[in-house]
Design a protein that fits this description.
The protein is an all-alpha fold. Helix content is 53%, strand content 0%. The chain contains five helices and no strands. α3 crosses α4.
Length: 87
Amino acid sequence: MHIEEEPTIMMDVQRMAWYKESKAEETVGGNLRFYRRLAHMNQTELGSKLGISKQFVSNMENGIKPISRAMALKLGSLFDVPAGRFI
């Protein structure tokens, strides 16, 4: 029995939408947004879990407000990742 394979089409990874989106996430705020979305949470839900406002979450994601060490520890614990991803 012979199985024919479909031809492979190669594409430059830097042109792919997922790659462009992942590059945009390479900031502290982008990491926060990535993990929040991965956990299927909106900003209001995350703010509620952290005891802060939706606006504060938005400000951290957009780099307007820095993420403190204490907040990074909370985020790391919440998302089960190293706190350093948020500093």
